[in-house]
Records
---
Amino acid sequence: MDGLLNRRVLVLNQNYQPLTITKTKRAVALFMDKKVEILEKYNEKIHSINFSLNLPSVIRLTKYINYHPKAIPLTRKNLLRRDSYICQYCAVKNKPMTLDHIIPKQRGGKETWENLVAACTSCNHKKNNRTPKESNMPLLRKPKKPSMLTYFQQSVRKKQDAWKPYLFMEQLKN
């Protein structure tokens, strides 16, 4: 039962703007307080003496809130996630990844979304303390800071297929 209450739920503002991802336990509490409506449900149910409820998958606030999401923190996990765990020099996947500074730290390179990329250990050693141009190792794509929408889209797993229309990943079904 505890695992069911920790399932992820997409939270939308009243205008359907994605706000955050919460746990089922919090989503059910918001529903019971009549603060949200359930738009999409998982197949599993929770039961009490008085009611039975399909677990919510997507909920929408009943009142609009003025909310400005925080920036996605620059962490190793988030950076590898942005680059889909693919080396940005040789496109290899399923290998241990490191983080590479495009402009090396010793040459003034900062720890920013635009200066860090995922790299396999071979490419990182080959590039060494040089720029991609100096090492003749062009990047697959120019790195940039991910948006919150991209972050939500990357959070979708198989059980969260119902989230896709709300995250502009497919059209809503009529």
---
Amino acid sequence: MKAVFLIAANLMREIFRKKDFYVLLLLLLLLLVYLLNAAFFGIRDVFRYMKEIGLGLVFLFSLLISVPFAAKVMIDEAASKTIYALLAKPLSRFQVIIGKFLGSLFVAWCSFSFFFFLFVLASVYKQGVFTGILYFQVYVAGLCLLLVLTAMTLCLSVYCTFSTTITLAYMIYFLMSWFGGGLHESLYKIPLLGQAVYYALPHFEFFDLRHRLIHLWEPVPAWVMLALVAYACLYSGAMLLCARYGFNKRWL
């Protein structure tokens, strides 16, 4: 396990070397400052729309960091031939995958945490209300989303090229986020196969709790949050096993 954490730690430092992270962080800060000072003709409760835009930017910028990073970690190792040095050590291929996954996940979670913290500061400053449980639930749901997305992207990168991996990862994410809720009735019209496809797809729409924070709805029950965490862990584990199978079959 020490070797796995060393691989992950080597990737974790990349978050502080990535220029695009600092660019997106500064851009988010500027956009939040603009939203804080924007005036929309005195429309009542307009801050809800500002909060929706701010949250959308937090998730979008996190995707722009996490997906390309997770897509390249395995591909870069194979392209630069450094994968041979790793496998020459007493490491299994699955340990390499786990180390790369943990490093990529840290980068995704770290960037999301910075972006979300800026949003919370701006939101509380503007609204003057801190609904801690709602912010916490949205934050945990965001971490679970990135957990699934990172595992799925890493799995795709074992089977596809870099550009194909990014395209598929973004396409699956946005399609499931926008239309995942309506797939149940459509796919269930196809016996067995439709049901299998429905459950095999990553349901990113499960983790979208933003509207509860925007409209200050009641927090979701604790068992729902536990179910979301369990689903994210189980699906990510399945993706890593799928990546292990493909990586073991791959000729290097």
---
Amino acid sequence: MKVAIIGGTGFLGSHIVDAMLEAGHELSLLVRAGSEGKAQSGEGIRTVSGDIDSTSAIRETLEGADAVVYLIGILREHPKHGITFEKTQYQGVVDVADIASELGIRRFLLMSANGVEAEATAYQRTKHEAELYVEKGDFDATIFRPSVVFGDPRGRMEFATQLHQDIVRLPVPAIGFHTGWNPFGGPVLMSPVHVRDVAMAFVAALDDPATIGQTYELGGPETLSWVEMIRRVAAAVDKRKLFIPMPIGLMRIPATLLDWIPAFPVTRDQLTMLEQGNVCPDDALQSLTGRQPKAFSPENLDYLRV
């Protein structure tokens, strides 16, 4: 099958490209100027240079394709550089979907996120609106909502690597986020899922008619607390961490004042989503891939030793 991938140079995208090639698909990648070095090359891959706001580049990427995979997503906006949730997570999907429809491409796989809501953070709202736009279009669509994704970052941003760099490697106690205001408030919970498992879910769904019209929540085999995830990251690099309990509500005070600064580690919206948690079961992932998902374990985090 000929597959157009929008967002194929990112962390998850690079792994999906590998999985698609292994399955024998021919790929067309939209590659932003300056990111050519991040794109895989070789037999079975065609690259098109252009940004997500270039309709001509989108059209060139999609021409001749049998299916479209949209993967672009960001965790933080940089409006001065034109990087916003609205542009990347909603308007980009609209433009790609409209052109795909014009070209008669019906198969559409969309990367969304676990916990999307209509009335929530800008991140969640734009993901939700993108889902609705694809669902109301004349597509054979499949939507994926993963929890936090981990795995070999290949030089990109990745969850466990960020925990290691921002928390574990520093010679100070780690912040132990919790809900509520007392020191023993509720844990922040997530279901970390391995990038290879998510990539294989995309490949499995592409050729399976039973996945058309379905939305899949993709979680790993365990639900872990924020503190336990940091402990496992630390164990992967042979370290131990002490923790300082931190109510998320208290962290909102400096975030409200300083999250406009790119160097500030967390935004108000990220704190809101952290408080909500990011939990989902692994049964959908197992049914798609036919295998036990990889755990967020020190053994599967050994790439942090590099």
---
Amino acid sequence: MTSFLTRTADGTFQFGHTLGKKLAAGDVLCLTGDLGAGKTLLVQGAAAGLGVTETVTSPTFTLMQVYETGRLPVYHFDLYRLDAPMDLHNIGFEEYMGGDGVALIEWADKFPAAMPEHCLWVEINRGRETTERVIMLRPKGERYRRLGEELKESADSGAGYCHAGV
């Protein structure tokens, strides 16, 4: 596990932006954290890093939003309102995993068994200060381990976030 610290909302967005620049077709990010932790903000940054020009909003009521203006399609899921794993099947969830785009899944911890074997778990927690966030990465697979290493190398270089150890 690798952790990062952002001190402001812009820092969380910048972390997502840096991450988004490094994402490739088929990548899956499983985001977790309390309400208001910054999951959607991080997704907005990742989408910007992928070149998405559309306004990215939380798909809480639509469950999924597709953005196709960037270098890769972005499939943004919000599982908060789903009650059972069968609901994932009903929205065609599996069809978007590991394909031509990037899947960004908020509230992935509601259905951990339904997440792909190889993915990057991104847990966002509040820090000591109101605007601080601790972002913990749990890579599942070599691709995501390398991605975490790349993010460590990008940290502390004025990116708006720093490597916090572990």
